[in-house]
Amino acid sequence: MGKAKAPRRLADNEARAVLRTIRISPQKLNLVAALIRGKKVSSALADLEFSRKRISGTVKKTLESAIANAENNHGLDVDALVVAEASVGKSITMKRFHARGRGRASRIERPFAHLTIVVREKQEEAA
């Protein structure tokens, strides 16, 4: 019996990759995600390759995964792909304590983030 297969959440010309629990604050990750939003994937990969941010290598891996999903799972043309969405969300926060002077302690929060990249095949308009 079982349940019917859930309908696909994305359009037929879209593919996505999700990376969860990345050890960086969402605010810092969003700076790198904003770098690639709306760009062609070739341009976005080049930007991430030469970015000096620590997390750019991880974002590049996730973008390459989304491209591979588009090509292998959905049969999309890699040359026509555009980064449609690059969304960042909050994840858990590790709480730690740091010893301070006079026998006190202060709290240190180590945030984690989620990253979702959606690529879309864009048709070239004939002019």
TrEMBL record:
Summary of subunit composition and partner proteins: Part of the 50S ribosomal subunit.
Species for this entry: Limoniibacter endophyticus
Gene Ontology cellular component terms for the protein in this record: cytosolic large ribosomal subunit
SUPFAM superfamilies tied to this protein: Ribosomal protein L22
Keyword set, alphabetical order: Ribonucleoprotein, Ribosomal protein, RNA-binding, rRNA-binding
A family per Pfam: Ribosomal_L22
Protein's UniProt keywords contain Transmembrane: no
Gene name per UniProt: rplV
Protein purpose: This protein binds specifically to 23S rRNA; its binding is stimulated by other ribosomal proteins, e.g., L4, L17, and L20. It is important during the early stages of 50S assembly. It makes multiple contacts with different domains of the 23S rRNA in the assembled 50S subunit and ribosome.
Protein name: Large ribosomal subunit protein uL22
